[in-house]
Amino acid sequence: MSYGRIVASAVLGMFLLFFVAADLVLFGILPLNSVVVTILPLAGLVLGAVLGVMARKRQSASQPAAQANAQPVG
Amino acid sequence: MKFRYLPVAGLAFGILVIGSASQAMADIPGTDGCAASGVWVEDGLIVVAETDNGVFTIPRSDTVNWEGSVAGPPGEYSGSVWVELPPPFGEVEVDSWSGDSETTSNSGSHEYDLPSLVPAGVEIVVSGEHNDENGSCSGKATLEIDGGPFDSPVTLISLGGTAVTGLGVALTLRPLFRRVL
Q: Taking the CB of residue A67, how many other CB atoms lie within 10 A of it?
């Protein structure tokens, strides 16, 4: 059972929302000391992990179908 | 008595210093009658001490003529000024002072020139407190550097990071975007 995709999407999700938070601060939408700046990367970590799990399930579901389609006939 | 509120960028001074040119010098809330004021020489901005009084836009470089005082001889005193960061990172101390004095006021001039890495247009909360034998006082000010987001290369770096990590997330989650046969 591979968790690589889940870990990768969680870490990337955290960094994505960290940079989004930084963008919001740099464009003056959030003040520097806003708690949202802290929450967004954590939300990215969780959301990334959840989406990683969903992506992994989707991939496992599609693989048997692809293998069945690839079976030689006859 | 030293009131070295102005180390980096006049930000340090801005802490206890807020107001407008038309206002008289006001006390900073506390028990020992602290007061402070400052004049940005080139920009013409004049601020006096109050708390939570809007956002003050300061130039990236200037010279600030400042004054600070307490109501009575302070004796042993200490204080500090800090920039507030998002939780849980707390704060970064910009300056601190301590000593023993009977002088009730001080003034000076501080020239600053912030590097371009410091982003413009970002609201930065600067807080400070002063304690002496007569009591204490504290204050905070919200400051931002005059200019736009692209005055600092940090903005381009951040936008680049957003694009790269967004692409990474999209590639990692590729199966979510495929139809299951």
A: 9
Report A:14-73 residues touching B (Cβ under 8 A): 15-16, 18-20, 22-23, 25-28, 31-38, 48, 51-52, 54-56, 58-59, 61-62, 65-66, 69
Domain annotation covers residue A26:
yes
- Per-residue model confidence as pLDDT tens digits over A17-66: 999 999 999 999 998 889 999 999 999 999 999 999 998 888 887 776 55
Domain B23-169 has CATH 2.60.40.3880: yes
Segments forming the whole domain that contains residue A18: 4-61
Q: How far is B15 from chain A, CA to nearest CA, in Å?
A: 15
Q: Where are the domains of chain B?
A: 23-169
- Which CA distances in Å does A25 have to A42, B19, B112, B118? 17, 24, 23, 12
Chain B interface disruption, residue of A25, A47, A56, most B CBs within 10 A: A25
Domain assignment present for residue A72? The answer is no
Identify the sign of the CA torsion A10, A12, A14, A16: negative
Mean of all residue pLDDT scores within chain B: 79
